[in-house]
Design a protein that fits this description.
By secondary structure, this protein is α+β, with helices and mostly antiparallel strands. It folds into three domains: 5-90, no CATH class; 105-181, no CATH class; 201-368, no CATH class. The chain has 14 helices and twelve strands. Strand 2 (254-260) and strand 3 (266-271) form a beta hairpin. The radius of gyration is 25 Å and the shape is globular. The chain starts with 12 loop residues before the first helix and ends with a strand.
């Protein structure tokens, strides 16, 4: 027989999952998880923390676990501003603090952790400078595992001194010296001469696009591990194809950004594979983009590759080529002498002008920071 999940009361969903797990009904477990994720998101969003704690108890509920984790990471107020935050078990909080995609500044994560720790030990005062040795011991035992999950390298020196150093007796040894060694870390902005505004938002948007999140701009703690290294600027290095390959060959994960002359339009694309070689490169992860007005990041459009076997075209002495040629141009094409054009083929038509002159173009390589 079949089960019509839509006729089941919402309060019974988790009971059915528990029973199916105990009886080994794997198909029911899989289908009900998919039904909840696809058709009952309001129910899941009503109490993702409570659902997550139940899901913890059953190894097979992987889909629900991943959904709840992603939801909490993106909509952090559900957890950290919720009335149940202070009663969340340590093992649940530990799992959440392990997530790279947690969309919170690290200093805010620290503040929430301290707030949670005080709630577990309400008899201990809020001024750490007045703690007794017993107070320190209790607080250490409370957050020892959790404090190791704080990414202190993502916290500014100012915040470290003002908000963290008062709790220095809880901290790992040598932490301050480690922080000072990386305090000259570059800010999370594009070193761009063609994008004078919103320089901190463009990297976030590009990283979201790379992670297949097309409709949102949010910062996760994972993103701070990356930098956009400028490897070519046309006005500085030259506009011909030979310069492009000298600067960009054998470099994976590059973003090309082009400023169209006499307009506010930006176009470009992402190549995860590199520009060396002399043939097509196959990938499902490349994309092209258009911003109708670089001053407003919300005007951005993305076109993901359709014909993966022709995603990237490498020809020595030519500039970046996205897609295969259609009539007179690739989806984005730079000729050996620096002329630009576009003709949709291997990517969707996102209204990039067919022929255009440029003010400048830049290529950035996305690198993981070394702390």
């Amino acid at each position: 027989g079949t089960i019509n999940f839509s006729q089941i009361e919402q309060t019974k969903y988790l009971e059915l999952l528990k029973a199916a797990d105990e009886l080994g009904f794997d198909k029911i477990i899989e289908n009900l998880q998919l039904y909840l994720i696809n058709h009952q998101q309001d129910y899941l969003k009503s109490d993702p923390i409570g659902i997550l704690q139940i899901v913890f108890l059953f190894e097979q509920l992987i889909l629900l676990k991943e959904f709840c984790l992603k939801l909490i990471c993106q909509e952090t107020k559900i957890l950290f501003e919720g009335e149940n935050f202070l009663t969340v078990p340590a093992h649940t909080l530990e799992l959440l603090l392990q997530q790279d995609e947690l969309a919170l500044d690290e200093i805010d994560i620290w503040n929430y952790l301290i707030k949670w720790a005080h709630a577990q030990n309400p008899t201990i005062g809020h001024d750490p400078l007045k703690w007794t040795e017993e107070d320190i011991k209790i607080m250490k035992e409370t957050i020892n595992k959790l404090i190791k999950l704080i990414r202190f390298q993502n916290i500014s020196i100012e915040d470290y001194i003002n908000k963290i150093s008062p709790y220095k007796k809880l901290l790992p040894k040598n932490l301050m010296s480690d922080i000072l060694q990386i305090s000259n870390m570059k800010s999370f902005e594009l070193d761009s001469s063609i994008i004078p505004v919103q320089k901190d938002l463009y990297p976030l948007l590009f990283l979201n696009w790379i992670n297949n999140e097309d409709n949102i701009i949010y910062k996760t703690r994972n993103f701070l591990q990356y930098e956009f290294k400028l490897i070519l600027r046309g006005s500085r290095d030259g506009f011909d194809g030979e310069v492009f390959h000298n600067k960009c060959d054998n470099k994976k994960e590059t973003i090309t950004i082009v400023k169209i002359k006499d307009s506010n339009k930006l176009i470009g694309g992402y190549n995860p594979l590199g520009w060396d070689g002399n043939d097509f490169k196959n990938t499902l992860n490349s994309f092209i983009f258009l911003f109708n007005d670089y001053k407003d990041i919300n005007t951005g459009k993305i076109g993901r590759v359709i014909e993966k076997q022709c995603a990237i075209r490498c020809i020595q002495k030519w500039g970046p080529l996205f897609g295969k040629i259609n009539n007179y141009s690739n989806d984005i094409m730079m000729t050996p002498n620096g002329e630009w054009s576009s003709s949709p083929n291997s990517y969707p038509d996102i209204n990039i002008p067919r022929n255009f002159k440029i003010d400048d173009y830049e290529v950035f390589q996305i690198l993981k920071r070394k702390f």
